């Protein structure tokens, strides 16, 4: 390309004879690719050469701009990025790509996202699909597409990543949910609903409370209660979902204590066998907002329901709560001197 030669010559990045050698090497590589006699080592070597040249051009442009000098209007960075991408694509088609090189290449794409078109990354997705479900690489690829900011391609990468990683795809869900909140609030409900119903328990149990919190923030109380009643029917049951709903009910100005008790009762039935915290929360609620008369009853139910190995800890924690409550009550007594 003439503008490449002009740029490299103008900024003394390559001498004329060096540029001639480079073009001869490129022609040789292309011929070997066409004839299918290229080696992986040759492709990788040329990949490094083009990448080094790209970095040299970027640094030169940066230096010129920092000195407030005009830079030749050129697409040299786009051209060199395309050369690197083409070489990677050939390596993937002709040879296997190890995960270290794949990770390095994704970082290259992220560093040069301004010079890359999203359609140039289709083969990269195929290369990642050929790995053995490497979570780190899927996270890199998803973050790259966040910067590319093409919604359809982004969602395709996310969905392929979830299919590949399965239960290990939770980091992808966290990333895409944050993105949707900021960039595509119109799609966040669909995503949260899908995540709440997914068959991977570690994912669905984390997303259901997020879905309920989102509903509380962007809809009304009736909608939140309706959603809670739908989500609580999903299996397995989610303790945090109940705790979120309880906190919502407690924040209401004319809080219905009966509604809160019903939620705590359900939570204790579902999770009270191996969860000390839900019993202690119920006890604290009755101490501060409910009825002290019910505390002993809840404590007794907890002792009966909890697994044997948790009972001593429960007794100790309960006694701590009683002591703290008495101390707080004592501090609040006002003494009037005669």
Automatic annotation (TrEMBL):
Q: Do you know which Pfam families this protein is assigned to?
A: UTP6_C
Q: Which residues form the U3 small nucleolar RNA-associated protein 6 homolog C-terminal domain?
A: 130-288
One GO term under biological process is:
maturation of SSU-rRNA from tricistronic rRNA transcript (SSU-rRNA, 5.8S rRNA, LSU-rRNA)
| Single GO molecular function | snoRNA binding
**Which GO terms of the cellular component aspect does the record hold?**
Pwp2p-containing subcomplex of 90S preribosome; small-subunit processome
Domain of life where this protein originates: Eukaryota
Name the SUPFAM superfamilies on file: TPR-like
Similarity comment: Belongs to the UTP6 family.
Which PANTHER family has this protein been placed in?
Answer: HEPATOCELLULAR CARCINOMA-ASSOCIATED ANTIGEN 66, U3 SMALL NUCLEOLAR RNA-ASSOCIATED PROTEIN 6 HOMOLOG
Entry protein name: U3 small nucleolar RNA-associated protein 6
Q: Which gene encodes it?
A: UTP6_1
